[in-house]
Every structure is written in C-alpha cells, then in structure tokens.
C-alpha cells in the first residue's frame, strides 16, 4: 500500500465520520427527517416501480444491512413506506415508497443538497471533485466485481 493510498483511506473515514452527523442534524432540524430515512426513501424513489426487496435495499442503501429492516419499520409507521408481498418470493416483501414518502423526500431534497454543498463540495475544485468521484467509483466497481 502506498502512503497516499493510506492517507486517502484515512481521509475518507474521517470525512464520513465528521459529515454524516452534520447532514443528519440538518435534515432533522429543517425537515424532521433522519438521514437514514432520507437515504432509504431516496433509494426506493429511484428504484424501478419505486420498490425494492429488503435484500435489494440492503445492497443499495447507505444504512447498514442490519438496520434496513428497522428503518423500514419506522418509515412504515410514519406512512412514508408500505410493505407489499413479493409475488416472486412469498418469504419476502417489497418496501414501496408512498405518495407521502415522495412528498417528504422532495421537501427535504433542497436542505440535503445545500448541506452537501456547504459541508463538502464547496471545498473542492471541479477537478478535485471529478478525481474523488472517479477514484471512489473505481474502488466501488472493483468491490462489486468480487465473487
């Protein structure tokens, strides 16, 4: 491992640890929406049919796989998500974003995007942002290609 590789890894961890609580606080104060809820709603809204199985949601959401089920339970209680039987597998179900969930997501998006700009992207030049995005994309692609 190169010194720069280790420095990049440490920087990624530190930035994540520093900014996730800030983004969570911004969303909770401005929209009464925890960051974990926003993340799950965002993934459901972007999915085909606006639905994902719990396994699929666990693969794409930033929230840990072990917390996905609990977050979905909370979203169901808030009427932002429903559970629907999976016609392809009777042992599982789909989490489906509701109209109220889409409305909450749209309402929270400006605060979320502004917090990302204020806390992260405004500190990078366009070239630096492209380099970070490209490098992280390479790492993620290699990880996803593993057996």
Could you explain how this protein is built, in words?
By secondary structure, this protein is mainly alpha-helical. It has a single domain (12-145), classed as Arc Repressor Mutant, subunit A. The chain has 6 helices and 3 strands, in the order ααβααββαα. The chain has helices at residues 3-31, 35-46, 54-60, 65-77, 99-119, 126-145, and strands at residues 51-53, 81-85, 93-97. It has a 3-stranded antiparallel beta sheet with strand order 1-3-2. Helix 1 packs across helix 5 (99-119). The longest helix is centred in the first third of the chain and has 29 residues, at 3-31. The chain is globular and about 50 Å long. The two termini are 22 Å apart. The mean pLDDT is 94.
Helix content: 55-70%
Could you say what the CATH architecture is?
A: Orthogonal Bundle
Number of domains: 1
Strand content: 5-15%
Return Rg in Å. 17 Å
CATH topology: Arc Repressor Mutant, subunit A
Shape designation: globular
Task: Give a brief outline of the structure.
By secondary structure, the protein is mainly α. It has helices spanning 3-31, 35-46, 54-60, 65-77, 99-119, 126-145, and strands at residues 51-53, 81-85, 93-97. The chain has six helices and three strands.
Using brief descriptors, characterize the structure shown.
single chain; 147 residues; mainly alpha; Arc Repressor Mutant, subunit A; 3 strands
Describe how the helices and strands are arranged.
Elements: H1 3-31, H2 35-46, E1 51-53, H3 54-60, H4 65-77, E2 81-85, E3 93-97, H5 99-119, H6 126-145
Helix pairs in contact: 1-5, 2-5, 3-4
């Amino acid at each position: 491992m190169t010194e720069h590789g280790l420095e990049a890894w440490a920087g990624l961890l530190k930035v994540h640890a520093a900014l996730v609580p800030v983004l969570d606080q911004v969303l909770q104060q401005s929209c009464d929406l925890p960051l974990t809820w926003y993340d799950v709603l965002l993934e459901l809204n972007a999915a085909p049919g606006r639905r994902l199985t719990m396994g699929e949601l666990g693969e794409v959401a930033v929230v840990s796989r072990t917390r996905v089920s609990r977050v979905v339970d909370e979203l169901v209680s808030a009427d932002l998500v429903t559970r629907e039987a999976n016609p392809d597998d009777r042992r599982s179900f789909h989490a489906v974003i509701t109209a109220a969930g889409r409305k909450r997501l749209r309402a929270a998006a400006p605060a979320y995007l502004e917090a990302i700009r204020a806390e992260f992207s405004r500190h990078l030049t366009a070239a630096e942002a492209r380099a970070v995005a490209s490098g992280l994309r390479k790492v993620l692609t290699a990880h996803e290609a593993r057996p």
